[in-house]
Amino acid sequence: MVVFHWILFIGIIVTSVLSVVNSIKSRRATAANDRGIYSAQMNIYMGIMLVLIALSQMLMYNGSTVLVIVGAVFMVLGLFNLFAGIRNRSFYVARKQQVSREVS
């Protein structure tokens, strides 16, 4: 069980770093499609991070009502961010491919 907690902790750290990196890339990108792709990837990593936080909170601590509610809220927010990021990424990738086909 301790190994599982360490895996969750490492996953939280990695996804938060990737979220920050994609946030910086999104703010520095000049093309709207690239900005959208980086923002969508940031949402995906943030969603994974929130799901991992919810899992760690639900598994590490005793089940008080407040912790269960906070964990459920993090889980719902994380899943929403994950699916919104996947949807937005597919939209911007298709849009980028369409623009590149029109240019060439």
Layout of SSEs?
Elements: H1 2-28, H2 32-60, H3 65-103
Helix pairs in contact: 1-2, 2-3
Mean pLDDT, nearest integer? 93
Number of domains: 1
Number of helices: 3
Uncertain stretches: none
Shape: elongated
SSE order, one letter for each helix or strand: HHH
Structural class: mainly alpha
What characterizes the major β-sheet?
A: none
Instruction: Note the gap between the termini.
Output: 55 Å
Would you give an account of this structure?
The protein is mostly helical and 104 residues long. It has three helices and no strands. It has helices at residues 2-28, 32-60, 65-103. α1 (2-28) runs antiparallel to α2 (32-60). The longest helix is centred in the last third of the chain and has 39 residues, at 65-103. The protein is elongated. The model has no long low-confidence stretch (mean pLDDT 93).
